[in-house]
Amino acid sequence: MSVFDAAKQAAQGLVQGVVQGAMEKLVPLAPDSWIPGGVPDPLIARKHGLIGKPVSRLDGVHKVSGTAAFAAEYRFDGMVYAALVYSTIPKGRIAAIDSAQAEAAPGVVLVMTHHNAPRLNPMPMFGSSPSAVGATDLPIMQDGVIHWNGQPVVCVLAETQEQADHAASLVHVTFDETPAVTSLAEAQANGVEQGQFMGAPLLDEVGDAEAAFAAAPHRVDQTYRTPRHNHNPIEPHAATLAWIGDRLVIHDASQMVTQQAQNMAQIFGLDPEQVHLTSPYVGGGFGSKGLWNHQVIGAAAAKLAGRPVRIALSREGVYRVVGGRAITQQRVAIGAKADGTFDALIHTGLSTMPPHGTMPEPFILGSQAMYGADTMLLKVEVGRMDTLANTFMRAPGEAVGTFALESAIDELADSLGIDPVELRIRNEPEKDPIKGTPFSSRHIVEAWRTGADRFGWADRPETPGSRRDGEWHVGMGCAMGTYPYYRMPGAEARITLTREGDTVRAKVEIAAAEMGMGTATTTAIVAAERLGLPLEQVDIAYGDSAIPGAIMAGGSQQTAAIGAAVIAAHNALVEELLKLAGNDSPLSGASADEVGSEAGGLARLDNPDAKETYVSILARAQRGDLSVTKAGSAPLETMHWSMHSYSALFCEVRVNAVTGEVRVSRFLGSFDCGRILNPKTALSQFRGGIIMGLGMALMEETQLDERNGRIANASMAEYHLPVHLDVPEIDVIWTDIPDPHAPMGAHGIGEIGITGVAAAVANAIYNATGKRIRDLPITLDKLL
Amino acid sequence: MSLFVNGAQVPAPTDPRVSLLDHLREGLHLTGTKKGCNQGACGACTVLVDGERILSCLALAVQFDGRQITTIEGLASEEGLHPLQAAFIEHDGFQCGYCTPGQICSAIGMAAEAQRGVPSHVTDDLGGTITLTREEIQERMSGNLCRCGAHNGIVEAIQAVLVEGVPA
Ligand code: FES
Ligand code: FES
């Protein structure tokens, strides 16, 4: 992607010193010695390269200049604008649609309803195939059936957005309503079922936990509640799309680029190659930037009207069309001995999803790997409600599950009179508590100790409610988080070396998404290091379905998936280069595993003086370029080891004794996430997660009107997010200990940040006030 | 009617319903100014009008006859990026970058307000000169939401340029 050229030049000044330092100390890098379960990725041993040095974002110049083009900022000639009309009932049928006035309104090109929409295949529902990413498989404008309050029922296309919006307001839809389940109590009364996640029941049993709990000398047993949440990326969901011949071109905002293109092809009965989807910039996603109704409706309307379409959801539209995180009600019961070690850990409860949904909020995932207990029972049940399908939101499961678990641990520590940090360390498991596999790299105790030191944990008031500063109660709390290391199969990397005079450029193409996590920059750093090239000679392309392979920016696994694919492609590149090098090369006779990349070429591992540059190899072979594409190895490492990111979180709050207002005055995250590749962007990932956790703790709640299943606060004025004044300076430290079993030694960092934060805040509030709030968000009315 | 955007005279919209934000983005193809909520709640659409920050989603384009509008596209000069733009990169004051143009324009408008002595909710001395403390910056920037959580980097970038006067 050439958009990086300008950014590269700007970044060059910042990184050049680092690069030169790196080039001086180079040792050859064996390309293929990292195998799952085998020898660690040789990049781990590199101490002087780019990895671990702070590098500014390569796309930064575009983002601060307004030249980064987001989905709703592409244009096609003859493009028209879409506006949607939404159902106002939760369940039933459309009785009648009166669109005469709308059709006659100025500028209107099309009014599409279920009567005239093209016939479409259902959306491939998550779990139905490896590439399926739909939250449901409900028909989209194919019949008059209503499944949730807010379902799009009419799409208006007009020459301008103003005309489309006005015409949409002139459409009159009447409904025949049928009884719907729109309250949690009703859903429970109708009976709950065992929750399934990724094809497996959300149920883990080790021994007889209920019996062990009943017999334990010390016990806590509490219920915790978390509300619905919405992702609220600042960029509303949008697509700009056109049918060009028999091809569909979509400029989308997507964190699953290839999969969405494939799914759209399936919905419209096309071959995958007929859909081209790009998404170079995504204005935040957090799990929400996937395939929803609007892209399908936009493409259908474009087809029907024969015009390119911009469908940009209003903020309210995002709440109506794009699902969020489901509500939970969780029981945590812990039985412990006097020394605090656990006899029983029980974490069970309820979440909801619609009849057409696939995803119960899996709030026990964190509990699977946090503590050793003699017996365990973890279980998610699900009740059905007639709402929009809920979906993945940053740390699905862990974010809300750790609120319950880590609050309960604090309650136990309090009742036992044991320091909560100490209590957690006493319950460190020796191996994976459920699977029994060894931990690949777990240094949470070190993270606890260094974090406690730095935060001044020893100064915590021992008695809750005992410290005052004027009218403010002051208190400290802590909590822990874990988030699994995943690496999804399907990732491929294409590396192309191009000779430019007496130098070479490398282009690395990956079908990844960049929503601001720093993926593009980190990928460039890792690729440069692996290829033995300076950063400014490496270009990264992503966010385009034409790139081979499929990678998802989800599950905090993208960096690992890319890393392994680049390792594989690098191996293949070395093999091809050796073939080209032939007998006249100093490398003659060497096999691929006997050479490594260094200083813009290859060198023998056993004799680094036997080397040849890429340029020289390509030139002698009279090649202008060389390109290889390779898929990453199968993710076997997670079968051998229990692999997770870990956090130890410390929070200080001030709670106003008069108003109940809570201010977070200090926060420290101490992380153990393997090797940190780019400290600058990693810091932002950690902080961003923590800040979303502060929102979850103190203010965020999607309010469902239980009378009619409609989201009542579908706006950014009424769904409160943390603003500048809510956010203290957040201190972040990390162990930086590489995991020998992960590419680059790195674990994911996108979701661990939010995990545990709400509990750390709630525990600090308890320490400050003596009030234990078990119901998020902790708004001031709950503290009065 | 004449509008001036980043120093150039530009056409006004023919439809009086068009917001300044939509006119910039759809009429003039200046998409650097972002739409986050279209209802005055997020600050992503912040632009400068004669040096004052406004929410362009809450303004009709036709209100601005003869006024000088500056957007993110108009901040860099021949010499390169505006110091705040460079500082946002240096301090990683963004992740996705979608709130960024609004944050930068807002910070420039805020600096002018402080210079004029306009107090904020956290100002102690309502008649005195304003020092842009960390808390003042946080309070005055609270109308610009950032869901990625780049708040610390944003405040650092602003402090570096507006308070310490150190272009990155
Ligand atoms: S778009 Fe104007 S304030 Fe949100
Ligand atoms: S950088 Fe993404 S919203 Fe601020």
From TrEMBL, chain A:
Transmembrane segments: none annotated. Pfam families: Ald_Xan_dh_C (PF01315), MoCoBD_1 (PF02738), MoCoBD_2 (PF20256). Residues 65-179 form the Aldehyde oxidase/xanthine dehydrogenase a/b hammerhead domain. Signal peptide: none annotated. GO terms for molecular function: iron ion binding; xanthine dehydrogenase activity. It comes from the Bacteria. The keyword Ubl conjugation does not apply. Its EC number is 1.17.1.4. InterPro entries: Ald_Oxase/Xan_DH_a/b, Ald_Oxase/Xan_DH_a/b_sf, Ald_Oxase/xanthine_DH-like, AldOxase/xan_DH_MoCoBD1, AldOxase/xan_DH_MoCoBD2, AldOxase/xan_DH_Mopterin-bd_sf. Keywords: Molybdenum, Oxidoreductase. This is Xanthine dehydrogenase YagR molybdenum-binding subunit. It comes from Novosphingobium fluoreni. The lineage of its organism: Bacteria, Pseudomonadati, Pseudomonadota, Alphaproteobacteria, Sphingomonadales.
Automatic annotation (TrEMBL), chain B:
Keywords: 2Fe-2S, Iron, Iron-sulfur, Metal-binding, Oxidoreductase. GO terms for molecular function: 2 iron, 2 sulfur cluster binding; metal ion binding; oxidoreductase activity, acting on the aldehyde or oxo group of donors. Pfam families: Fer2 (PF00111), Fer2_2 (PF01799). Transmembrane segments: none annotated. InterPro entries: 2Fe-2S-bd, 2Fe-2S-bd_dom_sf, 2Fe-2S_ferredoxin-like_sf, 2Fe-2S_ferredoxin-type, 2Fe2S_fd_BS, Aldehyde_Oxdr_Iron-Sulfur, Beta-grasp_dom_sf. Residues 1-75 form the 2Fe-2S ferredoxin-type domain. CDD domains: fer2 (cd00207). It comes from the Bacteria. SUPFAM superfamilies: 2Fe-2S ferredoxin-like (SSF54292), CO dehydrogenase ISP C-domain like (SSF47741). Signal peptide: none annotated. This is Xanthine dehydrogenase YagT iron-sulfur-binding subunit.
